[in-house]
What does this fold into?
Amino acid sequence: MAALAGVFVWDGQRIEEEELQRSAQEMKHMENISAMLRGGSPEEYQHPDPASERDAVRAPGEQPWEMIMDKKHFKLWRRPIEGTHLYQYRVFGTYTDVTPRQFFNVQLDTEYRKKWDSLVIKLDVIERDLATGSEVIHWVTHFPYPMYSRDYVYVRRYSVDKENNLMVLVSRAVEHPSVPEDPEYVRVRTYESQMVIRPHKTFDENGFDYLLTYSDNPQTVFPRYCVSWMVSSGMPDFLEKLHTAALKAKKLELEVRDYMAAKPLDGSGGEGKAGVPTAEHKSEGSCSPAQLEYA
It folds into this structure.
């Protein structure tokens, strides 16, 4: 048990180096696939053969991915999670008008997120692991009407690999004794997210590719197709909100914490908090426009 007698036990719960490396390897795989499938002009890539796309995107031994959205600057896939009614989602995209450092910092800075993300109800860092820099975050967010708001307790860890020109953020759900369930919210106990950023040039020049892999169990009574629709429409919306917030911070020269300059292992108390979206209420019923966000 991670939580015992009111004390959070980090063993088995912290984000280990192996998890960061796996995410980095997945980015390399997607970059190879993207280069292989790109072939010609964007117009020629509008409608790839579904079978070849599925076979190419999956790594050896993996279930195939199904492309559900193909835009000029990003592509969205999903695949079923074995033994459940849920899907895992993957977005591979590009931004050219903001720097990797700005985008990365805005995603991590929970205080700034409280300003640009109207869906956040609560976003706090609960505890930090001095050994790895992993942080436990409590995030409360609205879900689309008519659903109740959800709350997440998760551990996150980030890494900036200057040698390989890569930035990684990994998060997954945990339990923490200081954050018991609140009857006002629905606790989400199954949640994973991996964001990898590859600068086109350097961390401080405009342009980068990103890979976001995400899954959770939002504990809804909606049918599978409805949840899939909410996530597949909400994920691109969230990424664009994040992008817009980074542009705004850049244009207005807003003060955003520089996580590249900060030392994750400095042990300086409970700094930094991770947030997630909010947008729903009571008695769950039919699908409604998606307003979902991602940590």
User: Anything to note?
Assistant: The first strand starts at residue 3 and ends at 4. Confidence is low (pLDDT under 50) at residues 40-47, 265-286. Residues 234 and 292 are 5 Å apart (CA to CA).
